[in-house]
Target: Phosphoenolpyruvate-protein phosphotransferase
Amino acid sequence: MEKTLRGVGVSHGVAIGQVRHMGTAVLEPPTTQVPTEDAPREQARAQAAVEAVAADLIARGNLAGGEAQAVLEAQALMAQDPELMADVSRRIAVGSSAERGVYDAFAAYRALLASAGEYLAGRVADLDDVRNRIVARLLGVPMPGVPDSDEPYVLFARDLAPADTALLDPTLVLGFVTEEGGPTSHSAILARAMGVPAVVALAGATEVAEGTVVAVDGSSGDVLLDPSQEKQEELRAIAAERKAALAASSGPGQTSDGHRVPLLANVGGPADVPAALENGAEGVGLFRTEFLFLDDSAQAPSEEKQVEAYRKVLEAFPEGRVVVRVLDAGADKPLDFLTPADEPNPALGVRGLRTLLEHPEVLATQLRALAAAAAGLPVHLEVMAPMVADRKDAGDFAAACRKAGLDAKFGAMVEIPSAALRARAILQEVEFLSLGTNDLAQYTFAADRQVGALARLQDPWQPALLDLIASAAEAAQATGKSCGVCGEAASDPLLAVVLTGLGVTSLSMGSASIPYVRTMLAKYTLAQCRRAAEAARAADSAEEARVAAQQVLSGE
Model:
């Protein structure tokens, strides 16, 4: 009998297939007393397992490339954390086995992170995955991960670690559904980059029986259990219609009456460029540079290494616009040489521009590298700072750019409510704004972006968030400057129409979303976009805002 469950759709498309569940987590190792004389052997076993897991994560990252590579390299650094390994060694010295020492040391660190109000919940999930991989290797049991199957399937799990998501084979994994996570979690972002339909925060996902036939709509968040053959054919027809419309879509982003809205790509490094070009990106709206710094968290990359990496991306978009975000370190992206290890609340601490202003030599080196990388190229380089709170932040960043001799536009990311509310003041110092809706939602609603239970408050349709976006866009229009969106909100085609109506001047997203947004935007006039935006802002909840916008656009 057909039954529909609803989660949060995070990656477009329809997947129909049988359910396969993620492999079970590693069992807790037994507590056995190991003789003191065996401690060196057990310590060596633990060290070897840690190094093997770190190498495996790095290898997976190299295969995946792009954003996935940065995430997996961060996990490899986590596995080799010196303090964690010292704790493991101490536990083994007093009688623990290698596997028990690892398990208990990671449990203690996990409790420390969780006690910080779950601001680092996403990192806790990554920590669990690293622990499970190390313990599995020590016990000699299969690694937790995606199931082996010769037939395509829909993957169900409580959550998906980045190491699993990054290497999903889209020819076998038709789509995936998780019980945890949110629209801006690592797995959701990677799913969009891959173009795999995905639904997260689906209550009861792990209780769906193995082998159940399901239909997953990554746009609506609906998961239909045991759909009839008739329903399956209907859904396949809808999916085919969408695919045909996407194939026919080309050219620049614009409304049906010719109002231009450049559609740009979010990239995490040179590996993401081919997908951006294939999907018709008009440039790059968010070039995340953290991938270079995560290679070695003990020191910053050399200026020469940075120049080489930046130039590869800049060369791919001759005459195009490339917006580079300088290093956003801190919170869930700690770096040993930059970020303090003992912050009680890293998400609200020294991160982003705050970190760079405390280490001006790191910022100066990056800005000089960007200047050198762009030299002689026709690209339109723009550079922006993360986590700008007020006019002083913006002024300090602009001054650093000028001091470095950077011939580019300087901008500020709007990720903190104060920046949206005081956007006019910030625009006295910089030439453009870019809205990072993921963090802007997190700070507006005090809702960690990695916690599935708070997905409702991370929904970019929340009217309060739309109000802040409108405030920033109105300030940019009043000062004759641009205001784009580079957060995950831009990847929702219907919301892209509303954002255009709010006055946003460009939209940047994961490359796979560009054709969907281009097709949707081309259906409506600018006046329709504005009416949809007004209706959404007048609503009292995210769901009501979405419905109100749909009703306006459908003429109801």
In short: Residues 62 and 69 are 6 Å apart (CA to CA). The two ends are 32 Å apart (CA to CA). Residues 116-121 have pLDDT under 50 and may be disordered.
